[in-house]
Design goal:
The protein is built from 18 helices and two strands. By secondary structure, it is mainly alpha-helical. It is globular. The C terminus is likely disordered.
Length: 315
Amino acid sequence: MLDHEDLKKLNVLSPWKSLGDISLIWITIGCSLYLCHESLWFLPLALPVLASRLHALTLLMHDGSHYLLHPNEKVNDFLSNMFCSFPLMISTEVYRKTHWKHHQFTQTMKDPNYVIMQSVAAWHYPKKEEEVKKLLVRDLFFLGMKDHMAILKDWQILPNLALASRLEKILFPIFFLGMFSAVYWGGLWKEFIILQFGALLINPLARMRAMSEHAHYESEGTDRVHKLEETPTINAGSFERFFLAPFNTNRHLEHHLYPTIPYYNLERAHEIIRKSETYQSHARYELDGYFLGKRTSFREILVGDGYPVAKKKAA
């Protein structure tokens, strides 16, 4: 679908773009915390913004796990860990080990993500609409942590320190001591606690986004056609992209087809491949949004009948 020249152009990394996006996230977090420092009346507005930006950091870490933040691998991992994953107590290297298996064995029993989805009831979709809404509401009130820890425990740095890279074992103590010193000596306890509540509010965003990334049935293959049939691409609007799918995360199909393309080139990849005959013949899930639009992942992936519906549409 992408010819050699297109792929070559789209694979080019722009480290200044990654650095700019990481910087903008931390500036937004800093401004949100400053407003809360001045007055807690800003808290209801700040918490959703903080959650969305911390969620965005996990998605940049995802690109870091593919070595797409910087062409130098050590610099890539430094940026990914110190500014994206360590603030959430996650290891880029540990995440990388499981995530690459997800790409190799997508939606099979060798895919760690799929195995968790099959073994933990809260991650087993599709569900009735009332059940999905109940789970999202529970997340809003911090009651769904057990569900999320089933996944996060495999990525966290402290329980998995033996699997962390040598660089991470050096950097994490430096990060932790630096963070603790800044909070303690700077008297930033209030801001630190607010940031933790923002981190907990990642859960409903992550649940909705992650559960929209694949149709929920065991794959019959991992070739290009099966990826087209089983992985959505979502034409989300600005609101949903900000909160649920920053950095072109809504182009998950394109990422699985071409995992060497950095996030800022995925939209261009979508524009090219959707014109191909293969795409038009096999892509089943080009959706309008997550919640908003005629065809949504909420209706067709989380609540819908998944594969049987797609089969009927294809028949």
